[in-house]
């Protein structure tokens, strides 16, 4: 490898000239840097500039937003409000949820804490929540107040479930503000009632609420209006409604006591109520303000009564006194004119109020009311912009807009001597201001002699550089002539690069012409279109370009299209990645401004042997692929900061990656491998250069083995690995003791960031269209590696760790990693890969249950909709109230049906729980689910019975009995209880037919359907006939086993007919005749009856019959005994099959029906032999005559 190339030896500090593609250097083309008003601040700037005007900038500051906060801000379920505290913490309120996290990097790192505010019918807001430290605690305490006055106190935000509630007696007043004072917290209502809240920990943590009242006799000289203002006994109007609670330095403070506070309640009037040392005084500000502002806002002929003043916001002024933001309404002849103004008011004198200064504010129009920021001079902001005060009417105000980027400002304040702004997309940002001469006065501005200003804003939400920064960086693209690229390159890649270079240089016509050639006619439904592939190819080259200013790298040569747009002259890895971030943002701004972003389609992502850990498979939108490269760039920058801070695990992962390059040829260029072997390049150099493959560093980090023997060391190793992947805490001193430059916590805190949080924060800013390709599940891919690290950390390292504190930290970091894993796996949740996603989700959440971390498991299961796990947790803990809440919360997503299916599939006690408890809460929905599938008929029957629906229960029992056609003694499941009818079924086993028939009869007697009961009784008679079969038949057909088969009535009759055993009696044949009543076909029924009689006749020996004594012979023959039995049962009002409800006949009528005529009997084929026997023929005719004579006598 050539390490002494000319390009590589160029000093990054020497004057640069534009690079020539053909090797020629143009004369006189040296770059001239533009003067920037922020050049003198560059050394002190620590964050990236996100928004900027010539006099104001917002740059990144503090810790990155946690994932939970980013999701809440991006997809809020209700209105979101945010506040920053000087204690270093920030909190966001959305609905009843409070998300608190530290923004100050000097604090120990902690994840976002999720707290729940008291129930309310009104809307919660961040103004009624305060975080504060007590007694040098590790984590702050929190107090939240509902608008109705219910105070909830957490002694530590780390104990989300440990809180106490105390109600303030406010007589129906609405709470408006909660602030922290020196002697406790102060709660103010909309009608200016003041309550002091103090904490106590005598027995257990609690709070004490004390309503502050003026001294005795103080109201004697005041009118009704003042008492209303103080105690809110009348409805508040606009003049008396609270605007702000401000803590001011007491004007009575002397030299010995300088820390006295004065509480100022500012009402819209404007009226100020001052509380100081138990004394209260009211100050009316309308007249002094009108006098001070009348000259500016009223015409010479105008009257003072034509000016209306209303207070919108108030802050303590840095020079003392009160800073008021006012709304001025001038009664003009045609239409009222509304304007904004700022006023500095002194309240030191009890005799009169002095207005020290006032400013007119222009450019603050917005749907949301503006607020003021007490700098010198002050600023005004709303949700759309930050507005400076113009020094004169002719000058334009300095306006820094964020709404054009889809962003919005949620709050701005001063904390720790800095001006901080919180935006929805970027979180905490540092506000820097400067005057026209470039002097830095952060956080103050001097507009006294500023010239007229031209607004210059950053045009992309990802932080594109402003025009004044175009030539300030180390990027080589500024020195590349796009005309040469166009001249020697005609392919799509060269045209896109040339168009981008023209765009950077402001040659918009040339850029538009090349873009038109590239875009042309595109098929919206096509995949892998040339435009999409070209955009991704150019971006990947940018991400993987080698630094041009580093002499150790050989500059690429060859085709003209291989122009290094992402190359940097810098020698530092952090600056090189910063430059790649800059060119990436510029390229995205180019795609958007030229209309290419919305025209991007989809590409096919296939496994790549050169980067197996980064690539999945499937179709993905090109926008997602572009944003994925941005995520990797954010990950690379975060990892590089960790490595620069001295993280040994990151260093080990880098060496692991480069060792893998040696073992797998083809993954890296051979000159790079030669430089690695020679020691010219380090492992970090190679890994930070290939941004598109930076995820292999995370994969290697996950695979680093822990110490084998020391359980605490293994847990610490896992914790630090998760920290490197997942969080941004201050590292333990023992971990980085080897780095003397990092023993001070300041550089550590500034370097450490969250890799995963950086990627997710970047993803939340991208407006990429679906779909997103599924991640790779190869053994060495990123997602399986993260899953393995997570499982090992929870099930092995945390379980064996003897240190409770370290174990808690490890589980906290593991839960954050679990959220990232499941978010990455979400593309697998649809289609044929849904089962893979469910398995990953189960394998990720289940270990927390095994470790007893049910709350963490529940949070993950709720977020990622693992309904089966939520059901299991509720059932195992017998928490049916929580189960009801889930069914209501996820009703639209089918949670009740999933609950029914889960309980029904487990049988026994779970089915009883379904019918008795769960079904009783949602009976209609359970009935719909049970009726949707025929295999749920048994449970549906029991549910109807439990609900007291007897008609439906009767029908279902009948259907249940009709459907059973396989076994006679099919046993009901033990443990299913039937309320109010029988408890025996839940403990013992019974025949399904017998149970169904018995219950059907009970239901019919209680008012159920008689027809359905008859159907059940017919089936029940079949069961009785099965159990009444003679022993000879049971043995012959093997019906004496435990589960005998169920036969139809015709089959049972045929068994009697074919049985040749002499053990059968007339009672057995009578059963066969009874069974013929269950045959529905009349002809078939008569034929079977005939065969039964024939079988009964052939049972006896007729050849030796005595004809001299026929009466005696008839008593010995089976046929005549059967006749007598049928006749006797008919005389008793015979019941054909022992079912009185159906088969009742008249006396003797049954014999006429059952006995066939003699001619028919003798003509039967079975009677052919006996028909020729005169003895048998005589006895049969004699018997028939006796029957006929007896019938005539009756």
From TrEMBL:
Domain (Nucleoporin Nup133/Nup155-like N-terminal): residue spans on this chain: 60-250
UniProt GO cellular component terms: nuclear pore outer ring
InterPro entries per UniProt: Nucleoporin_Nup133/Nup155_N (IPR014908), Nup133-like (IPR037624), WD40/YVTN_repeat-like_dom_sf (IPR015943)
Domain of life: Eukaryota
UniProt xrefs under SUPFAM superfamilies: Nucleoporin domain (SSF117289)
GO biological process, one term: poly(A)+ mRNA export from nucleus
MF term (GO), any: structural constituent of nuclear pore
Transmembrane segment boundaries: none
Protein family per UniProt: Belongs to the nucleoporin Nup133 family.
Protein name: (African queen) hypothetical protein
Organism of provenance: Danaus chrysippus
């Amino acid at each position: 490898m050539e390490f002494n190339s000319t390009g590589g030896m160029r000093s990054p500090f020497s004057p640069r000239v534009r690079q020539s593609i053909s090797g020629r250097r143009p004369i006189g083309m040296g770059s001239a840097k533009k003067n920037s008003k922020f050049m003198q601040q560059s050394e002190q700037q620590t964050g990236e500039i996100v928004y900027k005007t010539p006099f104001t900038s917002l740059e990144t500051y503090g810790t990155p937003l946690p994932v939970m906060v980013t999701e809440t801000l991006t997809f809020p379920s209700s209105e979101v409000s945010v506040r920053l505290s000087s204690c270093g913490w920030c909190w966001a309120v959305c609905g009843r949820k409070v998300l608190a996290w530290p923004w100050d990097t000097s604090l120990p790192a902690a994840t976002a804490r999720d707290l729940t505010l008291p129930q309310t019918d009104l809307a919660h807001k961040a103004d009624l929540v305060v975080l504060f430290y007590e007694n040098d605690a590790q984590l702050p305490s929190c107090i939240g107040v509902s608008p109705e006055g219910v105070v909830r106190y957490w002694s530590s935000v780390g104990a989300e479930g440990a809180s106490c509630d105390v109600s303030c007696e406010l007589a129906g007043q609405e709470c408006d503000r909660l602030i922290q004072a020196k002697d406790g917290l102060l709660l103010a209502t909309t009608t200016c009632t003041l309550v002091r809240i103090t904490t106590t920990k005598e027995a257990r943590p609690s709070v004490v609420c004390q309503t502050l009242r003026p001294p005795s006799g103080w109201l004697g000289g005041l009118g009704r209006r003042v008492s209303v203002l103080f105690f809110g006994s009348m409805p508040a109007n606009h003049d008396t409604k609270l605007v702000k609670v401000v803590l001011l330095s007491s004007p009575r403070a002397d030299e010995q006591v300088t820390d006295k506070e004065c509480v100022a309640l500012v009402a819209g009037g404007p009226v100020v109520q001052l509380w100081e040392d138990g004394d209260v005084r009211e100050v009316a500000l309308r007249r002094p303000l009108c006098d001070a502002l009348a000259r500016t806002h009223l015409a010479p002929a105008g009257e003072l009564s034509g000016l209306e003043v209303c207070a919108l916001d108030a802050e303590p002024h840095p020079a003392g006194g009160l800073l008021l933001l006012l709304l001025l309404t001038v009664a003009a002849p045609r239409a009222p004119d509304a304007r904004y103004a700022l006023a500095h008011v002194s309240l030191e004198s009890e005799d009169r109020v002095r207005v020290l200064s006032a400013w007119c504010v222009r450019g603050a129009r917005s749907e949301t009311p503006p607020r003021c920021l007490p700098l010198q001079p002050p600023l005004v902001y709303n949700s759309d912009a930050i507005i400076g005060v113009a020094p004169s009417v002719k000058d334009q105000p300095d306006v820094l807009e964020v709404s054009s980027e889809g962003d919005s400002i949620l709050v701005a304040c001063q904390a720790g001597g800095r001006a901080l702004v919180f935006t929805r997309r970027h979180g905490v940002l540092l506000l820097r201001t400067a005057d026209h001469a470039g002097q830095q006065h952060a956080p103050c501005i001097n507009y006294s002699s500023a010239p007229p200003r031209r607004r210059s804003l950053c045009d992309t939400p990802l932080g594109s550089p402003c025009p004044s920064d175009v030539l300030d960086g180390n990027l080589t693209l500024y020195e590349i002539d796009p005309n040469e690229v166009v001249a020697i390159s005609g392919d799509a890649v060269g045209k896109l690069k040339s168009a981008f270079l023209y765009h950077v240089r402001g040659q918009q016509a040339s850029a538009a012409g090349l873009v038109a050639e590239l875009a042309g006619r595109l098929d919206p439904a096509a995949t892998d279109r040339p435009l999409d592939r070209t955009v991704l190819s150019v971006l990947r080259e940018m991400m993987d370009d080698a630094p041009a200013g580093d002499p150790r790298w050989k500059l690429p040569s060859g085709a003209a299209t291989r122009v290094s747009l992402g190359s940097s002259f810098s020698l530092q890895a952090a600056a090189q990645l910063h430059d790649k971030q800059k060119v990436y943002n510029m390229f995205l701004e180019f795609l958007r401004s030229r209309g290419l972003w919305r025209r991007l389609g989809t590409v096919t992502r296939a496994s790549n042997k050169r980067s197996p850990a980064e690539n999945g498979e499937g179709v993905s939108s090109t926008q997602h692929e572009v944003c994925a490269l941005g995520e990797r760039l954010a990950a690379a920058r975060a990892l590089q900061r960790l490595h620069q801070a001295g993280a040994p695990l990151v260093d080990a992962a880098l060496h692991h990656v480069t060792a893998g390059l040696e073992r797998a040829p083809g993954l890296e260029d051979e000159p790079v491998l030669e430089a690695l072997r020679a020691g010219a390049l380090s492992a970090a150099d190679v890994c930070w250069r290939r941004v598109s493959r930076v995820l292999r560093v995370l994969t290697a980090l996950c695979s680093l083995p822990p110490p084998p023997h020391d359980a605490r060391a293994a847990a610490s190793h896992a914790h630090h690995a998760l920290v490197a992947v997942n969080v941004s805490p201050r590292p333990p001193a023992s971990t980085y003791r080897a780095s003397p430059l990092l023993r001070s916590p300041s550089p550590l805190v500034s370097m450490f960031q969250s890799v995963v949080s950086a990627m997710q924060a970047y993803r939340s800013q991208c407006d990429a269209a679906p779909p997103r390709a599924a991640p790779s599940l190869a053994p060495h891919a990123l997602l399986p590696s993260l899953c393995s690290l997570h499982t090992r950390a929870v099930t092995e390292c945390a379980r064996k760790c003897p240190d409770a504190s370290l174990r808690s930290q490890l589980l906290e970091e593991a839960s954050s990693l679990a959220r990232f894993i499941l978010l990455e796996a979400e593309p697998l949740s649809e289609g044929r890969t849904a089962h893979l996603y469910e398995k990953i989700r189960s394998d990720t959440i289940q270990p927390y249950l095994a470790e007893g971390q049910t709350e963490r498991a529940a949070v993950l299961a709720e977020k990622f909709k693992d309904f089966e796990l939520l059901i299991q947790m509720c059932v195992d803990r017998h928490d049916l109230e929580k189960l009801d809440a889930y069914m209501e919360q996820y009703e639209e997503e089918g949670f009740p049906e999933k609950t029914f299916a889960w309980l029904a599939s487990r049988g026994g006690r779970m089915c009883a729980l379904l019918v008795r408890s769960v079904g009783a809460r949602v009976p209609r929905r359970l009935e719909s689910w049970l009726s949707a599938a025929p295999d749920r008929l048994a449970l549906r029957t029991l549910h109807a019975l439990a609900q007291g629906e007897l008609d439906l229960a009767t029908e279902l029992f009948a259907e249940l009995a009709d459907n059973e056609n396989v076994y006679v003694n099919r046993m009901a499941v033990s443990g299913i209880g039937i309320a109010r009818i029988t408890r025996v079924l839940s403990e013992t086993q019974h025949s399904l037919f017998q149970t169904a028939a018995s219950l059907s009869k009970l239901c019919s007697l209680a008012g159920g359907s008689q027809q359905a009961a008859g159907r059940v009784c017919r089936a029940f008679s079949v069961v009785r006939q099965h159990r009444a079969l003679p022993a000879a038949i049971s043995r012959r057909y093997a019906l004496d086993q435990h589960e005998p088969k169920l036969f139809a009535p015709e089959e049972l009759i045929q068994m009697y007919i074919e049985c040749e055993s002499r053990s059968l009696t007339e009672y057995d044949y009578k059963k066969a005749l009874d069974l013929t009543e269950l045959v529905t076909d009349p002809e078939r029924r008569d034929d079977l009856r005939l065969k039964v009689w024939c079988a009964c006749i052939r049972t006896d020996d007729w050849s030796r019959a005595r004809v001299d004594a026929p009466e005696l012979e008839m008593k010995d023959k089976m046929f005549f005994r059967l006749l007598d039995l049928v006749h006797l049962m008919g005389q008793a009002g015979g019941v054909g099959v022992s079912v009185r409800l159906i088969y009742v006949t008249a006396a003797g009528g049954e014999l006429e029906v059952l006995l066939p005529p003699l001619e028919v009997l003798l003509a039967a084929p079975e009677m052919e032999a006996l028909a020729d026997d005169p003895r048998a023929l005589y006895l049969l005719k004699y018997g028939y005559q006796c029957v006929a004579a007896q019938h005539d006598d009756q």
